[in-house]
Known about the structure:
- This protein has one domain (3-88): HU Protein, Chain A (Irregular).
- The chain is built from 3 helices and 5 strands, in the order H-H-E-E-E-E-E-H.
- It is of the alpha+beta class.
- Helix 1 (3-14) packs across helix 2.
Amino acid sequence: MTKPELVDEVAARTGMKKRDASLAVNAVLDGITEALKRGDSVQLVGFGTFEVRQREARMGRNPRTGEPIQIAASKSPAFRPGRQLRSALGMPEGEP
Length: 96
């Protein structure tokens, strides 16, 4: 599903005009983005949790030459599905 398709879905389910649905979708996405930038996690009970995970620096290999290279530490966004979403998708409880 693309962002315009999500806007259409929100408009159809809520009876909002597409313009208002677009503003709502953008506001939610901007809110999640800003929280993650601050280092906060965003927990939507039953749906899941958005968070930023820190990846440590590590050694890797250049796949072309096999030469060892240093991979810098980085931050990465992550999503962990909630119980209701996992159930809706038929995922077992123990899987991440």
